[in-house]
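ok trying again, last paste got cut off:
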Amino acid sequence: MPVAGKIMDFLSCSILFVGVDAAWQVHLETLLQARGLRVKSVADGRSAFAGFDEDLPDLLVVPARLPDMPATQLCQRLRLNAATRGIPVVVLLPEANSRQEAEILERGADCCFSMADNPLLLVFRICALLREYDEDLAGREGVVFRQPRIVIMTAPGGVLWAWSDRQKPADFEPIRGGQPYLVELLQQNGEDALLVEDPEKLDLSGIASSRACPDCVVVDLACPAFDGLALARTIAAFRRRSRQCTRIMGMVEHGGLSGEQVARAFHAGIDDLLDADTPVDLLVSRIGSLVRRKTLQDEARREEAHIESARARMALADALRRVNADLAAANRKLIEAQAKLVQSAKMASLGELAAGIAHEFNNPLAFVLAHENTVKRSMVKALHAVRSQDLVTAETALQKGSERLSASLIGLSRMRDLVASLRRFSRLEEGEFRRLDVPEAIGMVLTLLAPKLGQDIEVTCKLEAPPELVCQAALVNQVVMNIVSNAADAILDKRRETIQSADPTLSHADRILITSFLEQAESGKGEEYVIQISDTGPGVPKELQERVFEPFFTTKPVGSGTGLGLATAYGVVQAHGGNVVVTNASTLGGACFTLRVPYRAGEERRGDNVA
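nice, full thing came through this time. structure:
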């Protein structure tokens, strides 16, 4: 069967042989290990279940009859637990028997194989089952196996203790000894059975004993050492409080199943009641029935919890999507509001500078208009001189007109530069992050402020930081312009006070110093782009340094300021993740504004254009 060999590559799969004949096991191990499968073996079903707590196999191979239980019983117990429910089981038959095979398959086995058949066919069936089992592994994640836990509540002198002595076969060999026969029998069947003689030592939660909560508690209702009905009521009360599905079975004396006793047992919370004449097989089967019912309820609750958890996660995800959408909408509105505020403050700044800008336009315009007539007269004079062949006069007139045109061109160039600066300054995309040529942008701002600065305020720039910075254009267009404009106002106010006081000791060397440099961030991660603007004005009093960035706060006279310039500047710097502070300049004596923003040079958020 060479074709089968191509699909038999399950290097991570393990196969557990349970009670298989030694000769057959050796032969099958050789075939399976040759295909990369790992093989383990145990002697009986009880040993197999005991090992499931630590390691679950991927497939079981068992004979029809194990030393301690039939294969059908092993299959039924596997199917009761979520961790072992999907494990494939292959049952080995000594010879082909269709009736026996049908019965075994109906009781939970996945495959029956006759030892008389070709072993390679068995290997093929095993690999096919492993392939199907492997596809279902994701659904079993987080599910662990544990043996059913049964607690037997009785003591010497009780009916359950006496029942154990009476039912115990003469050839019975106990595992530990000193325990009732029922406890020993359940332990041999692979159950986690525990004898508790004192109700005070009953750990229903499983915390003290490091075990799981009991699946079933068998209570001796005729034990003289404790009140069985009171104990049943205690267990039932715990079951209600903890929402556990623990089952309670009660045993009474022979002939004690009266109507009154049944009623008391029902009201005490007991789920099944039997007397001391119950045969061993029936008692074990009824305990198994209670455990099976409890296991199914646990499974149903787990499934319901998973469903509720999934619903909760879906609801949380939906709520998170809505919150994210709301935050995105709020962020868009905030950006739009910031852009509008910056634009409004910008227009206010232009309005404040309107008179100076008009003067800047009027001077070169008047100069050009005045020279226009001069150039016209020179051209007429040169034309007449050429007609009269007076070349010296013609050359002199043309030279004079050329000089006037050159002078007019200087004025027109000044107007052109001013218009270009105004166009760049009035752009609306102030909120976009892009590469900005900082020296060029500062030069544009100083061009617009030139009428206000005049000839008496010297502006010095020492820009040592890299010229390009990824930021909003408003960082320079609005922030630097507002600060320099305020510095000019402060210097002019100080100058007027100086003139009024007529104090000759006061200096009139008014300056504004703009510097830029890179500085290590306080967090130690990355660098900060720092712009400092100092002036020789009166400075800002310490008690007002915290308030100058408040909206509508201004120290200017009524009608001279809106109180929004520095507030807008503060908002722009905050949008960059930076900060701006004001102190008194140590060198020039006036105010010193320090702007710090994260240095971004090699990254961009939107576009490559230089603002």
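cool. Residues 1-9, 134-140, 604-611 have pLDDT under 50 and may be disordered. The CA atoms of residues 167 and 357 lie 115 Å apart.
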